[in-house]
Design a protein that fits this description.
Layout: H1 9-45, H2 48-75, H3 78-101, H4 107-136, H5 141-169, H6 172-192, H7 194-197, H8 208-221, H9 223-239, H10 246-253, H11 258-278, H12 285-309, H13 312-340, H14 346-375, H15 377-398
Length: about 425
């Protein structure tokens, strides 16, 4: 018997709109906090190494959090888990404010708090993704993820600008104080959406390690989900690293400075916003898969063109096109993963997705950066882009017909009386 659908389309849409607004505010706070932590590390030490060490906390946290976070999401009451993690965000911001304002902050304490911040972010990522699937439902999944992507890209631009202004006109501790309010806004949104999110975990409780292994086994043995992860690996390791390499691209390939870096990031951001807007249109599952493959291949070809052109307005336009393809491909892959992953494995599926998406580009960018000393940056980015296009094309050809509506996971049933029991 098929699972019942969410209460009604209007209620589902209204709930997601509220969630998206709260998430945009919280994301702005997250980007504000990242800039403030980096600046505080520089202010305390004047060491580029320590600034890099703060950025490294995200990769460290992703590697050790991802295997457990998916199991935690699948087992837990989603409302309680998200509310708890939002409380952790507020606590970290409060500690950052208190230690900085009182002059007790040290660089090692800042690193520990940055690691704590990255840890709760890693735990929260799959919980947020699954919340989107519950609120939006299968019919509006791609549009919901597109709205989230637009909010994320706006927050990535607005957050650092707001944080910089606060640091200039007030002081660094004030950024952390404002963030408590930003994260608190999301906590209030979760309380409003409690009826929609308050349901027990979908997965049965076994031995924790066995559940982790079961999640990886499920991904490998489920053809649509395995196909998505082949796409994610090609995209993350071969295509997406260009965003991590922007400082080197601006300085070495384009011979510019901070202004050129800002221009590259702006062009990529404009393309990303356009890509998110393009994905707001509702599509059938086969059409969504075709758009996803096409967007990833287009991104790779735009990067290859950029490496060939090498300078001028055409090169900047190609970066914007790469940004458009990058976001469209990500939205498509994430939508397909949520649609085809069974509810009891969705947390583990999205946790691994998040790990590859966060750690893959960082590792690939480090490898390209090291090899660039011998082979040059442009040839390596171009070769990586060609490999990305070839891999995505091979997956599309060998796995054609795998994304059919009949293989999608059933919709989650609506919450029932008593669903608040069980789980976290």
């Amino acid at each position: 018997m098929p699972a019942p659908q969410p209460e009604n389309a209007e209620t589902s849409r209204r709930g997601f709109v509220i969630y998206a607004i709260g998430q945009s505010v919280a994301s702005t706070g997250t980007w504000m906090q990242r800039l403030a932590i980096g600046w505080l590390a520089w202010d305390l030490t004047h060491s580029v190494g320590w600034v890099g060490a703060m950025a490294l906390t995200e990769l460290v946290a992703a590697l050790w959090v991802a295997p457990s976070s998916g199991v935690l999401v699948d087992r837990s009451n989603l409302f309680r888990l998200n509310l708890l993690l939002q409380g952790c965000a507020m606590l970290v911001a409060l500690l950052l404010y208190a230690f900085t304002e009182t002059g007790m902050m040290t660089i090692w304490l800042l690193w520990a708090l940055a690691l704590a911040d990255a840890t709760w972010q890693g735990l929260a990522q799959p919980a947020r993704m699954v919340a989107v699937s519950l609120l939006a439902g299968p019919k509006h999944m791609a549009q919901a993820i597109a709205v989230n992507s637009i909010g994320f890209n706006v927050a990535r631009s607005v957050g650092p600008a707001v944080a910089g202004s606060i640091i200039i006109y007030f002081a660094t501790p004030m950024v952390f104080l404002v963030n408590i309010g930003a994260f608190g806004t999301m906590a209030l949104v979760l309380l409003v959406l409690r009826p929609a999110l308050n349901r027990p975990g979908a997965a049965s409780r076994g031995a924790f390690l066995n559940d982790v292994v079961a999640g990886y086994r499920y991904i490998a043995r489920t053809p649509p989900v395995a196909t998505i992860f082949l796409m994610v690996l090609a995209f993350s390791l071969l295509g997406r690293p260009f965003t991590e390499l922007f400082p080197a691209i601006a300085g070495q390939m384009l011979g510019g400075g901070p202004a050129m870096l800002s221009l590259l990031m702006s062009a990529q951001g404009i393309g990303a916003l356009a890509g998110g807007a393009w994905m707001l249109r509702r599509r059938s599952i086969p059409a969504l898969a075709r758009v996803t493959y096409g967007a990833g291949i287009s991104m790779a070809l735009a990067l290859l063109g950029f490496c060939i052109v090498g300078h001028g307005q055409i090169a900047i336009a190609l970066i914007a096109l790469a940004g458009l393809g990058h976001v469209m491909c990500n939205i498509g892959m994430q939508s397909l993963a949520q649609l085809f992953a069974a509810r009891e494995f969705r947390g583990r599926t999205m946790a691994l997705y998040g790990l590859i998406f966060r750690a893959g580009p960082a590792a690939a960018a480090a490898l390209i950066g090291g090899l660039a000393e011998w082979f040059g940056l442009a040839p390596l980015i171009g070769a990586s882009a060609v490999a990305c296009a070839l891999c995505l094309s091979a997956v599309a050809f060998t796995r054609r017909g795998v994304f059919t509506p009949e293989r999608t996971a059933p919709a989650a049933p609506p919450p029932r009386a008593g669903d608040e029991r069980g789980g976290l």
